Amino acid sequence: MTLGVGLIGCGAIGTVLAKAIDEGVVGDARLVIVFDIIREKAEKLAESLRGKPLVASSFRDVIENPEVDLVIEAASQDAVREYAVEVLRAGKDLMVMSVGAFSDRDLFEHVKRVAKEHGRKVYIPSGAIVGIDGIKAAGIAGIEEVVLVTRKPPRALKDAPYVLERGINLDEIKEPTVIFEGPASDAVKWFPKNVNVAMTLSLAGVGPERTRVRIVVDPTLDRNVHEIRVRGPFGEIVTMAKNVPSPSNPRTSYLAALSAIMTLRRITEPVVIGT
């Protein structure tokens, strides 16, 4: 059975996902309809695809389309807050890319409850980090400590609210410099387009308040680096991902889009490998 997909957000990641579906990379799926608050972006994307998906005039066009089985959010944390529950209530499954929205624990619990009530699934791809399978398994035995160290070149952190509010001049940083250290719950608020991985890690492990995040501006790098250290009765997990930035958006990693593509493939394939 072909999976009918609706896409919210036609930016960098949304475009990568749309093209992957259009080219058959994700398996038996079809892009039915696309939506963006800037309609021209949706129209441009739809026109570039062979499958010529519909262009929605509003969000409701997406959730009311009977051919849509799964809605992908690839827009923003605000989009998650505004649309997630409505998607599930409409009887559609949901994939969330802007997982930082779930730093609001009440929102996350509400989304989980509505998904259960309506028999739907919420998919959160691993994103730009590795080792999520192992961390989820380790959580059964208990996790004592989780630390994420994210290193990014200055251009990747441009326009982050934390940088702007504190007047940090990224161009003046000439050596690796820690600009933030704190819980994941704060990190995803101050860097909403940079460290969604912190929330993914938190949900897989010990939660956003106990997950520690350190953000380093490193002008010697040309890619985004995420190092994770997890400790508990099971032992210790250490992972590192050196990610090439997305060609069209240096604030995010190419691996984040590839992770979402793999999640879609997992949904459509008959054999699932991994936790």
Strand residue percentage? 25-35%
Shape: globular
Report the structural category.
alpha/beta
DSSP, total strands: 13
Largest beta sheet: strand ordering: 3-2-1-4-5-6
Question: H/E series, N to C?
Answer: EHEHEHEHEHEHEHEHHEEEEEH
**End-to-end Cα distance:** 24 Å
* Tally of separate helices: 10
Short précis:
With 275 residues, the chain is an alpha/beta fold.
Account of the 3D structure:
There is one protein chain. Helix content is 36%, strand content 26%. The protein has ten helices and 13 strands. The chain has helices spanning 12-22, 39-48, 59-63, 77-89, 105-117, 132-141, 161-165, 184-190, 196-204, 254-268; strands at residues 3-8, 29-35, 54-55, 70-73, 93-96, 122-123, 145-152, 177-183, 211-217, 224-232, 235-243, 245-246, 249-253. The two termini are 24 Å apart. The mean pLDDT is 94.
List the helices and strands and how they pair.
Layout: E1 3-8, H1 12-22, E2 29-35, H2 39-48, E3 54-55, H3 59-63, E4 70-73, H4 77-89, E5 93-96, H5 105-117, E6 122-123, H6 132-141, E7 145-152, H7 161-165, E8 177-183, H8 184-190, H9 196-204, E9 211-217, E10 224-232, E11 235-243, E12 245-246, E13 249-253, H10 254-268
Parallel strand pairs: 1-2, 1-4, 2-3, 4-5, 5-6, 7-9
Antiparallel strand pairs: 7-10, 8-9, 10-11, 12-13
Characteristic terms for this protein:
five-stranded mixed β-sheet, 275 residues, 26% strand, 10 helices, 36% helix, alpha/beta, 13 strands, six-stranded parallel β-sheet
